[in-house]
Each structure stands twice: as structure tokens, then as C-alpha cells.
Design a protein that fits this description.
Elements: H1 5-11, E1 22-31, E2 34-41, E3 47-54, H2 57-70, E4 80-87, E5 93-100, H3 107-113, H4 120-139, E6 142-143, E7 152-154, E8 160-162, E9 169-170, H5 171-176, H6 196-199, H7 206-222, H8 234-243, H9 256-265, H10 276-279
Antiparallel strand pairs: 1-2, 2-3, 3-5, 4-5, 6-9, 7-8
Helix pairs in contact: 4-7, 7-9
């Protein structure tokens, strides 16, 4: 489902904001890329978030995220509503990217507020909406590369949107590189959620997001990362995912349908893994 044209135009009002036209509020997130602050448009009182990064890898990832998001238009993908680049007196660049505010925070935040784990009925609802987002991304030639609860946002009405596109890649760029992401050091994403073929650097495709979706379902059902019960050493876990023949342990409380869904997502052979269209 696409965002109506009028709403899209209204949202783009932030695109031309000057530094004196908005005010930065409290810190709501941070990471290796930089920071995320709540912000307000002083003319309208509207809330949004501003994601900021300075020169370096964080700036490059944020530029990549902004470029990809500016080309997208879906209810199930967080909206980028503008950006500006500032250059300091020392020549350092700072990029601000304006995005819609998701009042519910991440799925990880929300699960923590409700006891750490989610009931299967809620997991099904959220998974269905994540699949809407993945189907849209894949139809537009984009691999997200980092699906997990922290990168899925929730608005107060319960709608789910896929976010955090700093690791995302366009499939045509992957194919021009021989179908792989590059060297081990260039791999992006979160290892415990990564597909085996990605960790082996054998290929990155839409199927990689489906494996990560399966890991995210496990995360929602258990409140813990996938593989956490089996391997305490992260390096050993990566080796087990990449070189073993196992799948992460399925939550015991899931229904037969839930287990069947996970089996389709967590098929080790990416060619046999179900697509977002088939799972929908």
C-alpha cells in the first residue's frame, strides 16, 4: 500500500527546513552511525526524529539510508521527510536526516514493556506487517540486510514499519559485485540474525532477509537473540551458523503453524527458502 499523494506532500514540508526552523529534543537512540533525537517543526509543532552522523563510516551509512528511503513510498517502511548537510569551520561534515516519529519505539522496546516476550497472536500480526514491508522492498530491488526487533518500529495505533536502512543494498549493486557483499569486513548487519550464506560470503539476496525474519520471530517469542540458548560465545555462534547444518532452536510454545512458518524462513539452503510473496 502506497502513501496517498497529499499525505506525501504534507510530509515533505520538513525537506526544506532550515536550522532555525526546527528544534532538537531529547536523545532517543544512538549507535555506531551517530545519534537519533526527537525534533519539532517550530512552525507547525509537528514531531519528527532527526538522525545525525558526522564524517566517516556513520556518515556513509546514513547517506545510504537516506538515498534508499527517499526512493520508497509504503505504509510499511519508515518515511524519510528531508535532510540537510552542514559543514563545520574545520571542514567536518554533519548530515541530519529527518524521519517520521514512531511513538511506540522499536519492537524490542515494546516487548520489554510487556514482559519481554510476545504472545503468538501478536507475533503473527507484527510478522504479517513486516512481510508487507519486505515484499515491497524486494519488489523494489532492495535487500534490508539487518532485520531484527530493534529495526522494526511501532506507531501508537499498532502499525509496524521497517526502519534502519544503513546496511541496506540494492540487488543490482550486489549482482554487479558478483552476487556477494564484498570482503568479510564489508559485511553489514547483525551476525546472530544473518543467514548462513551471508556469513560464508557466498551470496546476499532477498532470501537473506527471510532468514533474518525467522530469527526475529524467535526474538519476539523468547525475548532473546536467536542462538542465545545454544552458544554463549558470539564467535562460536557465527561459526555454527556459517559452517554447521543446524537451525536456531524454535520456541517450544509456538503452534504447529508457527513452527511451520519458521521452518520455511530458516531453511539453510537459500534456494529452498520461501519468499516474502509465498509467506505473505
Amino acid at each position: 500500500m502506497e502513501i496517498p499523494e497529499k499525505m506525501a506532500r504534507d510530509c515533505l514540508q520538513c525537506a526544506t527546513l532550515q536550522p532555525d526552523e526546527w528544534v532538537k529534543g531529547k536523545l532517543v537512540g544512538s549507535g555506531s552511525f551517530g545519534t537519533v533525537h526527537l525534533a519539532m517543526n517550530k512552525a507547525t509543532g509537528g514531531l519528527f526524529v532527526v538522525k545525525s552522523a558526522r564524517s566517516g563510516a556513520g556518515l556513509q551509512a546514513l547517506e545510504n539510508e537516506a538515498k534508499i528511503l527517499e526512493s520508497l513510498n509504503s505504509w510499511y517502511v519508515v518515511r524519510c521527510i528531508g535532510r540537510d548537510m552542514l559543514i563545520g569551520s574545520n571542514g567536518e561534515h554533519k548530515l541530519n536526516v529527518f524521519m517520521e516519529y514512531m511513538a511506540g519505539g522499536s519492537l524490542s522496546d515494546m516487548a520489554e514493556k510487556f514482559g519481554g516476550v510476545l504472545e503468538e497472536e501478536v507475533i503473527r500480526l507484527y510478522t504479517r506487517e513486516i512481510l508487507h514491508g519486505l515484499k515491497y522492498l524486494h519488489e523494489n530491488g532492495i535487500v534490508h540486510c539487518d532485520i531484527k526487533c530493534k529495526n522494526v518500529l511501532l506507531c501508537s495505533s499498532g502499525n509496524i514499519k521497517v526502519a534502519d536502512f544503513g546496511c541496506a543494498k540494492r540487488i543490482k549493486e550486489i549482482k554487479s559485485n558478483g552476487g556477494v557483499a564484498g570482503s568479510w569486513k564489508s559485511l553489514s548487519g547483525t551476525p546472530l540474525w544473518m543467514a548462513p550464506e551471508v556469513l560464508r560470503n557466498e551470496g546476499l539476496d532477498f532470501a537473506s532477509d527471510i532468514w533474518s525474519l525467522g530469527c526475529t520471530v524467535i526474538e519476539m517469542a523468547t525475548g532473546r537473540p536467536p542462538w542465545s540458548d545454544e552458544v554463549s560465545n558470539p564467535i562460536a555462534a557465527v561459526m555454527k551458523i556459517a559452517c554447521g547444518n543446524e537451525r536456531p532452536q524454535f520456541p517450544t510454545q509456538l503452534s504447529k503453524e508457527g513452527v511451520d512458518f519458521l521452518a520455511k524462513c530458516l531453511e539453510r539452503d537459500p534456494k529452498k527458502r520461501w519468499t516474502s510473496e509465498e509467506l505473505h
